[in-house]
Structures are given as C-alpha cells and as structure tokens.
C-alpha cells in the first residue's frame, strides 16, 4: 500500500514538474520572441559557417576575424558604451561584462561597464586585449547559442545605433610621411627645386594637431573662415575657398610611455592598440598664407574626422608586409630598423557631390606606400622625452602613391585643373553639401578585414 502510494506520488510529482517545465518553456520562448520583436531584431540563420551571426564572407568589413572596438549608443537608452561588431550587428560589451562572460580574463574586472570611451579597456593591456578578442570569437562561433545573448539584449542592428568617438584623446599628432604627397605638395607650394626640405629624409616630419576638434564619422564639418592672401597680394578675412580632404590612417596608442624616456624603435609597436581611418580636413588657401614659419594652424584645426571602429593590430597581422628598404638610410641611430614592417591597407576616397549625392570614386591608395614606418614615427615623436598616452592619435600623413593621390590639392594641382567626379560633375575643391567618404580594408585569400566608413559633409561657412 505504502509502496503504491510512493509510486503514485513520484509519478504525480514528475507530471507536475514536467508541466511546470513545459509552461516555463512556452513563457521563455514567447519572451525571446517578444524581446526579439521589441528590438526589431530578427537574426537570420547564418550560412557563412564562420559565425552564428550571418554576413557575406569576403564582402563584409566585419567578419568574425575582425572584432573591432567602438563606442555606440542605442536609440532607447542613448547611453554611450563599448561594443564590437560582427557583420551588420553591434555587440554590447558592457552587458557581456556584467553577465560574467569576461570573468577572470583581465586583472581589471571593470573595463566596459559605465565606460563612455575605450580608454579603460586599453589601460588593461595587450594580454587582456587578446583574451577579450579570443573570447568574443568563441562566443559567436558557428556552434554558439544565441538565445541567451538575445535575452540579455546584447545584439543590436547596426542601422539602429549611433557611433561616437572610440577613445578620449589628449594628443593628436599628424605626420607627413608619404614621399609622393610631400613632393607633390612641396612642388605646388614652393616649386620643384624646394619641394622636399632637406630635413624630410632625415626625420619623420609632423605637426601637432588639435585633439579637441576630432569628430566621429558622420559629423557635419563647417567650412572654416580665416586669413587668406589673394593673387593680388591683398590679405582678406573670409570663408576658405580651397577646402580639401586628406586620406590617412591613424594609430591609436594603447600603452603609455613615461615622460623623459624615449620609446626605443624596437619596442615602439608594443604601444599601438590599432588603427582608424582619418580625414585631416585642410583649408589650402589659409594653409598657404599661415604655414611659414610654424606650420599648419587654422588651416587644419577646425575638424578632423575619424572612423568609429578601431581595427586591432592583432586582426591586421595577416596583412603585415615588409617595407621597401629606406633610401637614404636615416643618419640618426634611433631611427634605424633592422626589420621594418607595415600593413597592406587599401583606402578608397569617394565624393558624393551635393548635386546628386551619388558616390564617385576619386582615388585608391595604400598605407604601405609610406616612406617612414609607424615605429620610426613613434621613436621620433618621443626622442625628446615627450610621452605617449593611452588614446593618443598618431596620423600617418596624407597617403599618396605613384599614380593615385590622397588629396584634392594634388588631384586638381592646387585648383589648376578640374577633377571629374562621376559622369557630370567637376570639382577643384570641396563645395558646401558635398560629402567625402573614405573606406578602408585589407584583403587576402578571401579574408577581408575592413574599417567601415570615415565620412563628413560640408556645412556652409558662418560668413555666408
Ligand atoms: O607644408 C607642407 O608642405 C604641407 C604640410 C601639410 O599639408 C601638413 C600635413 O597635414 C601633412 C600630411 O598630411 O601629410
Ligand atoms: Ca595631414
Ligand atoms: Mg585636421
């Protein structure tokens, strides 16, 4: 009797448990559907076999091998926080951290929660950068289960978020390291005899830019006003009539150096976290009048646009290439390198004219064509004892090649000739309402690691 009763109660408990489980499952599934619909996030099943998140392999800039870092805010909370991206989806790193997905990986436990820039993450050091990247690659592997991540609201459609500056930058230095660009600009400004100053081949020349006017891709750029010397020799105060772009890559410093302690060339790359694209907007008429003797000032301090995603040095490893031997070999020992490498990064600049807004390709250049390496730039910047700080931006300088160039100044020969922009439009300089878009990517054997876009549209001057 007692045994019969025991059997019955076990069966009834099992049935109750099963019922609760099934009810729970139904609620749970509904919940996920609700969550997914609330976010209008319906993630199609992946077919690329590389990641649970779908994308077209070889077409997207953001395959799972990329894992770039940025700062986003969603429409709902509008709160800035760190993220990565796979295909067309942005992944919230704050929520992942708060739900212990990164537990024990880094010495710091709080790098993303409450952070409005990536500086605290960079502070955690190269070992941590690597482990976070590897963890994210595993988390979104083809075998991964998205259910929990959807419940946690970790994934957002890129189209539904806005991006901000990825780092807080106290120092922005811009180099002048493309021989093609320096010769072209020097010839246009000073004539062929004085194109390259004698110091150019001895050290990587640079100017210190204005960090406070760094803006993220998509921000409007107001046409600057300033002093200009006309062809009649008269100096005027007016809106720049020679507004230009410069196609560049900028290194993001991830490891600081000590003031008074130059960074050795061999160790220089250890200070670099990754790269963004950079457009060093330039007002050539203001530049030509102001730059002797102290270099660019108002002509380049009004806005500098950077792309929102920092592509890490680690993701760019497959695209590392040896630099051509440097001629002449620099005299200064601190600039000598036994092995010098750079990265094969294609950069394409498009103009969307205000008349049509149709993108027209103006030029294709490559980061590898620079004369001075990034390690040499950093060794030179710090040779005086100047220090590097986390978040500093080091612009490569305008990237021009033997055939194609990275500025309108060079394309139009300082406004001497009209440049074709698509079928029906011509430009000598950038007009109000024009949008300049730089796209960048490395590509090899079906693997494409890209940077996305670096764009800005010109707003009319306040003087008009
Ligand atoms: O004076 C010159 O020859 C030109 C200087 C620059 O344009 C400065 C600059 O931004 C360098 C660069 O982007 O390569
Ligand atoms: Ca520049
Ligand atoms: Mg600038």
From TrEMBL:
Stretches assigned to the Fumarylacetoacetase N-terminal domain: 65-166
Binding of Mg(2+), residues: 280, 300, 304
Coiled coil: none
Keywords: Calcium, Hydrolase, Magnesium, Membrane, Metal-binding, Phenylalanine catabolism, Transmembrane, Transmembrane helix, Tyrosine catabolism
Keyword Ribonucleoprotein: no
Annotated binding of Ca(2+), by residue: 174, 246, 248, 280
InterPro entries associated with the record: Fumarylacetoacetase, Fumarylacetoacetase-like_C, Fumarylacetoacetase_C_sf, Fumarylacetoacetase_N, Fumarylacetoacetase_N_sf
Fumarylacetoacetase-like C-terminal domain sequence ranges: 172-455
GO MF terms, alphabetically ordered: fumarylacetoacetase activity; metal ion binding
EC number: 3.7.1.2
Domain of life: Eukaryota
Pathway: Amino-acid degradation; L-phenylalanine degradation; acetoacetate and fumarate from L-phenylalanine: step 6/6
Family: Belongs to the FAH family.
Binding residue positions for substrate: 176, 190, 287, 291, 398
Name listed for the protein in its UniProt record: Fumarylacetoacetase
